[in-house]
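Table 4 source record.
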Amino acid sequence: MFFSKSIKTKLSLLFGFLITVVCIGLGIISFTISKNALVTNINETLSQMASESAKGVARELRVQLNALEALAESSLIKENSLTTEDKLDMLKREVKRSGHIRIGIIDTQGNAKYTDGTSTNVSDREYFMQAKAGSSAVSDPIVNRIDNTLAVI
């Protein structure tokens, strides 16, 4: 029965089918182009966001490092008339004020005493070696020997 239909009907069905196939093809092409543009845009945006975040972290680290350097240079910390325990008592106030977990005093052999009463030896740590050589140092995230947490020192 389908074969007995008129040429008009057959042409209409053929053109309808062709238009449908062309529309589906154009839709797939549009989707692929849009997806690729979106992925490229997201990758560029994420890279820019990561770069800006890294700059913000670096600025904050510099601010914290400057504050700690100023604290280390204060006459109360440098003066030899106070005991290490007296100095740690003064540093406890700075811990409360600044929100640090702990602050410590490290001797030239790497023996560290902290404001929370803990102590450890850090002579093999890179940040200690850099500080001993006279330059300020901030570690990459490392496992803290006192409580086994990840920390930046």
